[in-house]
Amino acid sequence: MTVAAQRRLGGSAEASRSRLPVAGGIAAGLLAVLIATWLTRPGPTPGIPMPGGLVEYGLPVSRLVVDLAATAALGLSLLPKLLGFDDPDRTEPIAARARHWAVLSALIWCAAALVATVLSAAEVQPGTVPDVADYVDRIGSGQGLVVSASCALACATVGMLAVRFGEKVPAELRVLVAGFGLLPIPVTGHASNWYWHDVTMVSMELHVIGACAWTGGLAALTVLLVRDRALLARALPRFSRLATVALIVVGLSGVFNALVELLLSPDRAFPESLVTTRYGWLVLAKTVFVVVIALLGANIRWRLLPAISRQAPTALAKWATFEIAVMGLAFGVAVALTRAPVT
Amino acid sequence: MFEVARPGASGRSPIVRTAVVVLIACAASLFLATPAQAHNVLIGSDPREGASLPATPGKVTLTFDQAVRPDFARIAVTGPDGAQYEQGDVGVSGDSVFIALRPQGPAGAYVVSYRIVSNDGHPVTGTVPFTVGGTAAGTPGAAGPGTAPGSGTHLSANPPGLGTPPPVAPSGGAWVWGLLVATGVLLALATLGLVRHDRRVGLAAGGTASAGAVSPQRTRTANPGTGTTGGGS
């Protein structure tokens, strides 16, 4: 009895410690999105009812939940690819947990996307019960959210099949379905302009998929693998290559999109708008976060990875938790950035 | 031959697979992308911001940098006495929105407030102040005496649902709410099913290392647990 209780206590403490990165990422994201939303909130408009606080802050938060849940779903779907399939006895317990959490993430993703749809409808129809059908019918970003919710549901269905039938459901299929569900998310934000629309859309898609694969992969590794040095020695070098590609893609596409948005703003001159507009502040904040993330990633890549490859004990959990928290900040700012005008 | 090729392929596979996903994503995004995705920005107005006019203008026009969608657009004009002076519905032509004004407003500071739904689906709000000063003697003759009282009475009925687009059949809304509730129930059921499966397999978090020791105990405690959740729901 006491032994079982102790084991359960020890297990729960261990589990809670391994969940720390997730909690840190979510908390950082919430903090960033609330601050950034408060910073970019519109001024009062006499005579026109404004949406209440629940909508004003609930909508960005629900969008953040969509992003984070989708990131988790993609990262957990990627995990079997990082683990490899040549040692199923060792990897299967972890892959099984990844499949479970992937389905849960997809379900949260779907629910959050639907909540975001309702709140978006409420945002443009303040003072009334929102007519969601009318909103989705007329506004493209509503359609984007509904498509994203449907993709999340498809992702959950495929994930359920994977829970039932194990790795016989190909990991590529799960990655593909989760990645496809990410595509409508940029459609629901702006950060792309009328004139260079096609280029900015593609660059935005690359940005979102790169950021999600990067953050999701790191979070999945940190939460599920950090105690298993042998598997970590195998999976982390693979992830490190993925992260390098993601860093380049995310950095270039992010800078490109921000510059387009700032350059094409009709009433603000460019170099000043970086410091004089709230949008510019958020761009600068996100750039700083990316630099910090790159430094933390480089630290893991060059200082910790050799030791991890030797299966020696390292402080990976601490560093990765720190990196995920900064990624969470970047996600939170990103949500506000997709909504803020260049003012 | 196949065995030799396999390790190399698995070593590179995450990047190759990711590249494939990304390429497919790009291809798909060309289909998914909506034609207009940009944030409207106010670039001009009539009356201009801070303008000082001899009399209340007949209408207020706001000009944006690109075409404005008519959906959910609202304009309100608040007078110095706090009353609303706009009348009728918001009109949209190309990149500008406009609304008619009640004539014979008092002299003082007016504020034009607007909220349009930008082409990317986000609301864009703002205000344009202007003042009406001096003598307003010319206006009564200029504005038709017949239209003013008529539109005035029309206005008195208007403020609650001011300038909103034509109402949509409530059945459409109810249908969607039903669908949302149904989806919510589906999600809850799926979560419940997943959690029960989780318990049955003994895969709860942290249980991997000692899975063999924990799982029989888990299954024993799981049955009453799931029984109570089943009874509760």
TrEMBL record, chain A:
It is found in: Cell membrane. Residues 233-337 form the Copper resistance protein D domain. Its main location: membrane. One of its GO terms (biological process) is copper ion transport. Pfam families: CopD. It is a multi-pass membrane protein. InterPro entries: CopC/D (IPR032694), Cu-R_CopD_dom (IPR008457). GO terms for cellular component: plasma membrane. The chain crosses the membrane at residues 20-40, 60-80, 101-122, 142-163, 175-196, 208-227, 239-259, 279-298, 319-337. Keywords: Cell membrane, Membrane, Transmembrane, Transmembrane helix. PANTHER family: INNER MEMBRANE PROTEIN YEBZ (PTHR34820:SF4). This is Copper resistance protein CopD. It comes from Planotetraspora thailandica.
From TrEMBL, chain B:
InterPro entries: CopC/D, CopC_dom, Cu-Rt/internalin_Ig-like, Ig_E-set. The chain crosses the membrane at residues 174-195. Keywords: Copper, Membrane, Metal-binding, Signal, Transmembrane, Transmembrane helix. Its main location: other. The keyword Membrane applies. Residues 1-38 form the signal peptide. GO terms for biological process: copper ion transport; response to copper ion. GO terms for molecular function: copper ion binding. It is found in: Cell envelope. Residues 136-166, 206-233 are annotated as: Disordered. Pfam families: CopC (PF04234). Residues 39-132 form the CopC domain. The keyword Transferase does not apply. One of its GO terms (cellular component) is periplasmic space. This is CopC domain-containing protein.
